[in-house]
Amino acid sequence: MKIRLFTALAILSAFASSAQDSLMFRKISDEIMLRGKCYENLRVLTKTIGHRISGSPEAARAVEWGEKAMKATGADKVWLQPCDVPYWYRGKESLLLKMGNDYKKVTALSLGNSQGTGGKTLTAPVIMVHNFDEFKALSADQVKGKIVFFDYRFRQDIIFTFQGYGDAVRYRGQAPSVAAAKGAVGVIIRSISTGADDFPHTGGMHYNDSFARIPEMALGNITSDQLEKACDKGGVMAKMTSECHMMPKPVRSYNVIGEIEGSEYPDSIITIGGHLDSWDVGEGAQDDGAGVVQSMEVIRAIKALGIKPKCTIRAVLFMNEENGQKGGQAYADSAVARKEHHVIAIETDAGGYSPRGIGLVMAPEQKAAILNYRNLFLPYGVYDFSREEGGTDIEPIHDKLKTPMGGLVPDSQRYFDLHHSNNDVFENVDHRELKLGAAVLTQFIWLVSQKGII
Amino acid sequence: MKIRLFTALAILSAFASSAQDSLMFRKISDEIMLRGKCYENLRVLTKTIGHRISGSPEAARAVEWGEKAMKATGADKVWLQPCDVPYWYRGKESLLLKMGNDYKKVTALSLGNSQGTGGKTLTAPVIMVHNFDEFKALSADQVKGKIVFFDYRFRQDIIFTFQGYGDAVRYRGQAPSVAAAKGAVGVIIRSISTGADDFPHTGGMHYNDSFARIPEMALGNITSDQLEKACDKGGVMAKMTSECHMMPKPVRSYNVIGEIEGSEYPDSIITIGGHLDSWDVGEGAQDDGAGVVQSMEVIRAIKALGIKPKCTIRAVLFMNEENGQKGGQAYADSAVARKEHHVIAIETDAGGYSPRGIGLVMAPEQKAAILNYRNLFLPYGVYDFSREEGGTDIEPIHDKLKTPMGGLVPDSQRYFDLHHSNNDVFENVDHRELKLGAAVLTQFIWLVSQKGII
Asked: Percentages helix, strand, coil for chain B, rounded to the nearest 5?
């Protein structure tokens, strides 16, 4: 029997949360805070595999590990769902800047998906703009043959950093094609980073096919400050060398899926997921190792507590969130082909930080039904259900099946300090924050499974 | 003219927050998030002075630095307020445990205020109890001549960690006298720590004068786990050596105070403070370097924005919070002697983490008046005004003058991972979280100053 979240929750919205609900929330929290396995799982993922870009041997190892770790949760059923992913390869790279008398090597990272210099050294003068408007004001003569430094700062005044990210990330994504349109030969950006440090941050960029594919590199904030000062004086030169390129053929990879079959409505599916791939730097600990181990923890905790959820719960470790979303597409395509009914899909891809809210992308009536239970979450620090946050991997199923979508909203202050950088390592994940996020996800999914399925 | 917070806020409680209030909150936040000096101040305090236990040369240097840094905020007036503080000196220490065939050195810390072994080595068998109840069940014969290992675990199931701390900290404070009453010769405790690591945590203990002053040392959680297993098997021995002792005479020290004179009610004082002393390990970065630099940031931001607060605002860097509260007492004594009127006192001593609330210790009517403005704080992540949290340093003035009291309530998940340990260093403070806490304090103080003083 397939039921609709909306109908189910609307029926239930008459009921206030009960003492029994509160007790179950406590049991779930205790199970995870005291006996949770997600932190140890994260240690293994980050320290034995490390970063794992789509298509790489590390990603293949992550799939193997994920399948094994998913089985260890006690899931009723575990399987791999195939998808073909792009494989962007970094290779060697270096950037030398002449900001005074001599060239000096600086720490830089090529942006993901970008085409490098083919291993040759590109030497060119550097000109600086602070934003696209300043760039627009330049003539093609001023730009031609130059490397353009887009010195746009992440807006530290925006408190919810994902909003600041949305504002700044267009420079990473669009700058090369914007610059190439006026004859630039390369782009340097100030990293999309809130960090008070010098880590460069990589991340996805994309070319507009109308223009030349010029290389793009990111600098950390401290080096960017130095380059900014040097550009104010003028005469800056750069030597950019990089081998990065997109591999010619896609690589077969997989989503890892674990399932608990619903006791009453096995054909009604709740999805909780994070993504298994990462960029090819650091350890992909917060992005999104945290989401991977939290998603598995939901399954483990439900099984450990002997809960029999009324509907089916699936944890999905999506492949290729970072540069293709092929895993999310494969999951949605399969759901369509198999005519599955998806009650709700939740993603955790905003870091394993202390949870503050759950984003809800659904009809107002559905939100209202969930909000009847909001007080249950308050003892766990969760008070904010106002954000329209889902997740990249669940967007395809949301688009194709109109599946209601949600996302864990953790505290956002630290995420963009380390996101996509060599600083995104296990040591920068706190065990209590990670577990608390997993507990809140499990509580939410239990709630929807029991209350939304009558 | 002296006015009362209660009266003032009661009058104002009729007014809802306005768009102008919201704009001022934004200005304050922007000033601190974009141009804040607290993070750089913390870097200097932690990296050029480091830890600074009361009475030590480092504490004296911290006072000098604090006076200079306070003047740099632009405060109208800066002064030192004398107080005489105890000086507990650690000296050399070591702990060897025989948990199998051989003695092995483990990482341990003597607890603050404790009396060591006078530099001699105390060798004794170790017996383990998990809590005071288990200890009660032991006979004096079983305890006599032994070192007692109090293996009480910080309750990780309690979400608000300050509550877990309150539960566990009695073992640190009371175990030596409890054990000495039955003839024990020493105490080892599992650190009062949520850490998933092996850092031992120090902190204040106190002797009951009826019993022998036996030494007390703390182990990190990993070594505690090992000792627990070894004690289950039996035959554990320890060699404890420590020089720690309380110095015979108090040392003259100071609170550092900076003030902005109120434009309308100069005799009505709002206090914001943190404590300048720390334990003698790590760098005292979260405890309470964060509170020190945030308190100064309040003054700096108000001056930088050209705000003329109606009442007087004082930032106080209290001395000796950790083991004597002599600074807090001196501040209260001075207020009484000078017949000062204190509108409210706020402390920030729960770490420079992302703010979640402001604790309020005052009459229900006063709280209700403040709660009229709660929505102003929501964009800054502050939603919880329910906790009865003030601060150790402001308790004396609260007790003596009935001054309403408040405390910043940041996210608590990480605080007891590093509190009082060598892991409490600058690198474990996030610049955005620290600044956001300072912004919220400044917003709150501005609000009380303007709205509460009509």
From this structure: 40, 25, 35
Residue B293 in contact with residue B41, Cβ under 8 Å?
yes
Note the pLDDT tens digit of each residue in B29-80.
999 999 999 999 999 999 999 999 999 999 999 999 999 999 999 999 999 9
pLDDT tens-place string over residues B3-33: 555 455 544 544 556 899 999 999 999 999 9
Question: In the structure encoding, which two tokens stand for residue B261, read together?
Answer: 């004179």
Helix axes B431-451, B19-35, angle to 10 degrees: 150
Tell me the nearest-neighbour CA distance from B36 into chain A, angstroms: 11
Q: Are B19 and B429 contacting, i.e. CB atoms less than 8 angstroms apart?
A: no
Q: B84: closest CA among B330, B328, B252, B325? A: B252
Q: At what angle do helices B431-451 and B5-12 cross, to 10 degrees?
A: 90
- Shortest alpha-carbon distance between residue A413 and chain B (Å): 6
A414 touches B: beta carbon within 8 Å: yes
CA of B195 vs chain A CAs: smallest distance (Å): 8
- Would you say the pTM of this structure is higher than 0.80? yes
Tokens representing A148?
């353009």
Ordered by where they begin, the domains of chain B are 5-87+249-451 (3.40.630.10), 89-246 (3.50.30.30)
Task: Report ipTM (2 d.p.).
Answer: 0.96
Alpha-helical (H) ranges within A181-318 are 221-233, 290-304
Query: If you count residue pairs, one on A and one on B, with CB atoms under 8 Å apart, how many are there?
Result: 67
Q: Quick check: B394 and B347 in contact, CB under 8 A?
A: yes
* From A383, A432, A433, residue closest to B383, measured CB to CB: A383
B414 touches chain A (CB under 8 A): yes
Contact B302, B448 (CB under 8 A): no
pLDDT number for residue A18: 86
List, for residues B229-287, the tens digit of each pLDDT value.
999 999 999 999 999 999 999 999 999 999 999 999 999 999 999 999 999 999 999 99
- CB contact under 8 Å between B159 and A417, yes or no, is no
Residue of A198, A377, A431 to mutate for B, most B C-beta atoms under 10 A: A431
Min Cα distance B314 → chain A (Å) is: 26
Cβ distance B381 to A356 less than 8 Å, yes or no, reads yes
CA distances from B231 to A380, B110, B196, B400 (A): 36, 21, 21, 48
Contact B105, B94 (CB under 8 A): yes
In this structure, are strands A341-347 and A405-410 parallel, antiparallel, or unpaired? parallel
